[in-house]
């Protein structure tokens, strides 16, 4: 699944986003591309289950691919 970030905070974004994803699925594989502001997650969960984690971490995202 892929998410598009609306903006980055600049405060160690990759680590913060990865941690937020792992709070939902500790086994998820996370790839954050700061240049395109895209986050790819390999998980068995539904994309919607990660939206709250992104929001709580301070990121506004939209689902690009489920």
Order of helices and strands: EHEEHE
**Fraction of residues in helices?**
25-40%
| CATH architecture assignment name | 2-Layer Sandwich
For the biggest sheet, the summary is: 4 strands, antiparallel
Stretches with pLDDT under 50, minimum 5 residues: none
Report the sheet-strand fraction.
25-35%
Query: Which strands sit side by side, in order, in the main sheet?
Result: 2-3-1-4
Task: Estimate the mean pLDDT confidence.
Answer: 95
Give a structural overview.
This protein has about 70 residues and is an alpha+beta fold. It has one domain: Alpha-Beta Plaits (2-Layer Sandwich). It contains two helices and four strands; from the N terminus they run βαββαβ. A four-stranded antiparallel beta sheet has the order 2-3-1-4, with helices on one face. α1 packs across α2 (about 50-55).
Keywords:
66 residues, alpha+beta, Alpha-Beta Plaits, 4-stranded antiparallel beta sheet, globular
Question: Summed up, what is this model?
Answer:
32% of the residues lie in helices and 29% in strands.
What's the layout of helices and strands?
Elements: E1 2-5, H1 13-24, E2 29-33, E3 38-42, H2 48-56, E4 61-65
């Amino acid at each position: 699944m892929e998410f598009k970030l609306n903006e980055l905070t600049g405060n160690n974004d990759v680590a913060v986003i990865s941690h937020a994803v792992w709070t939902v699925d500790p086994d998820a594989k996370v790839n954050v591309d700061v240049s395109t502001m895209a986050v790819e997650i390999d998980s068995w969960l539904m994309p919607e289950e990660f939206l709250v984690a992104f929001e709580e971490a301070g990121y506004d995202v939209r689902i690009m691919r489920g």
